[in-house]
What does this fold into?
Amino acid sequence: MLEQIDLTRKLGKEEYQQKMEEMEPALARLQRECKALGIPVIVVFEGFGASGKGLQINKLIHPLDPRGFEVFAIKGENEEEKMYPFLWRFWIRTPEKGRIAIFDTSWYRKVSVERFDKKMSKEELAYSYQEINTFERALTDDGTVLIKLFLHISKKEQKKRFEKLLHSKETAWRVNDEDLKRNKEYESYKAMNEEMLERTETACAPWSIIEAEDRRFATAKIFSEVIRILNEKVKEKKEQKKAGEKGEKGGEEVKVPEDFGEGLDSSVLSKVDLSLAYTKEEYKEKLKELQERMSLLHGELYRKKIPVVLGFEGWDAGGKGGAIKRLTEAMDPRGYLVSPTAAPDATEKSHHYLWRFWKAMPKAGHITIFDRTWYGRVMVERIEGFCTREEWQRAYREMNDMEASLAHSGAIVLKFWLQIDKDEQERRFNERMENPEKQWKITDEDWRNREKWDLYEEAVNEMILKTSTSYAPWIIVEGNNKYYARIKVLESVVRAIEERLRE
It folds into this structure.
């Protein structure tokens, strides 16, 4: 790819000024359009050292409203960032709707600079490409415009620019030994970048190669590419709004009988044995032993820097709170966080739906317990119409990808579904209504949700079948007997941690 690029291309001063007089106000207008339409934008600057990324970013932001963008200069991971999955520091920097994030180098550092420095195996490299592609697809599927720019210069030009920077003590600090080594081994590093461009060139996030030896030509081409891509997205968004519904399809509706699929759905919940139970004496004995083991294991997790992600879902009044309380009672409070998930607030709604969960993920050696999770996307949001069919259907893949990334980084990932039957739920609801200490736990919405039990059951069955994986399994907890449910949760967590520590 890079071999075919003509690096001799130049732009005269007058022609450059004429183009910029047209393109700068056009870019400013498009920023306002993106803000009004709620379009998030990410611009990634990659390329060879001394290719002018900093200069070109300054040129690009000049006509923009500074209140609407943020620039991130990405270096090697700091000690805090090393304790999280590779993509965590980029997920938390993704822009909200209507804003622009500009990355001076990005997640591609891992498969270019770090690869050149021999900091990863072939297997790790292959998985990194996979993670990058799934990350970019998740963002673009959700409406983010991702513009990827690769600034290309020759070995000779790079060396000349390095020498110029080194000649002045005011700029010499910008060139380090690693930069000089990559120039010395330019062909090898270029081949790595060629592979990076090829393996991450996708329909949803294509690369734009920028001939960067002539700075005026580079600036004009960057503006031209950004304007072209934003203009296409703005036009598409306006057409969607005009159509009245995102993703609206034409054509005659196919009519099928309402009961056409009755009895054919796969079900995992129907085979759950809800008669399983422990007596109070059995419960107390098992609880004491398991909590003692959990206390010791929590220390081992911290010592060996193993993160743990535990997700709890289940029917209203299914016993999530009680199970979480017994799990955490013997744990060091400095080493875990319980993250209750409610309806997203305005800021959370303005980001990708996974953003708020990435922000709460544990660092190495810590535990995060989610009381309700990202799976709300394929349950309540699906059933209540808070997202489109296309959005919740692709969410299965997106959530599997996120959990695979967590597991690949070393995390233990377990997901619990607390299952009770409809009669037991009604009994617990009435108990809460009659007990002043528990009335706060019951709302009108809980009673309304009971009317949609069958819809939720269908959604839960599909969710478990599509997202229970070897690296992040669903554990169905028989919950009619609270004693049994709490012990099963504790046993499952203890067993998973002990198995990891034996590896």
In short: The longest helix spans residues 215-243. The first strand starts at residue 41 and ends at 47. The chain has two domains: 2-240, 280-502. Strands lie at 41-47, 69-73, 100-104, 145-152, 207-211, 308-314, 336-340, 367-371, 412-419, 474-478.
